[in-house]
Amino acid sequence: MKNCVSKNQRVIHGFSSQPDSSDLVRKNIDCLLVAGTSTCGCVRGTVLDGYSFGYPVFLVEECVFDRSRTSHLVNLFEMNAKYATVIQLAEALEYVNKIKRIEGRKVIAS
């Protein structure tokens, strides 16, 4: 994913345009694990775009943050109810390690 701020343009999500989705299709990406700061801004924008592009979106709870705890929790609740599945870091690492084992790559320490 790209940073929330690109070189020439400020965007509030990990997708700056449709071609990013095409890149994911070309690479056979079948779901998104989302992490980042500003749960109510960049993270939410990325989740909404991923959902709009038709991807199952998984939001890693320990890997997102917002300055306001209330805003953070409300956004997690709303995204989990509508656009994403909020999962724990252990579950995300288990999934990534499973894919790495299938591909014969080095597994991430949990």
Question: What is the element layout, followed by pairings?
Answer:
Layout: H1 18-26, E1 32-37, H2 39-52, E2 57-65, H3 69-82, E3 85-87, H4 89-103
Parallel strand pairs: 1-2, 2-3
Question: What's the short version?
Answer:
By secondary structure, the chain is an alpha/beta fold. It has helices at 18-26, 39-52, 69-82, 89-103; strands at 32-37, 57-65, 85-87.
Mind explaining what this structure looks like?
This protein has four helices and three strands, in the order H-E-H-E-H-E-H. The chain has 110 residues and is α/β, with parallel strands linked by helices. The protein has a single domain (18-103), classed as Isochorismatase-like (Rossmann fold), CATH 3.40.50.850. A three-stranded parallel beta sheet has the order 1-2-3. Strand 2, helix 3 (69-82) and strand 3 form a beta-alpha-beta unit. Helix 2 (39-52) packs parallel to helix 3 (69-82). It starts with 17 loop residues before the first helix and ends in a 7-residue tail after the last helix. Mean pLDDT is 82; it is low at 1-10.
CATH class: Alpha Beta
Output the helix-strand order: HEHEHEH
- In CATH, the homologous superfamily goes by the name Isochorismatase-like
How much is the average pLDDT? 82
Given helix and strand content, the structural type is alpha/beta
CATH architecture: 3-Layer(aba) Sandwich
Put simply, the count of helices is 4
Gyration radius, in Å: 14 Å
Q: Trace the largest sheet across and list its strands.
A: 1-2-3
C-alpha end-to-end distance: 22 Å
Largest sheet: 3 strands, parallel
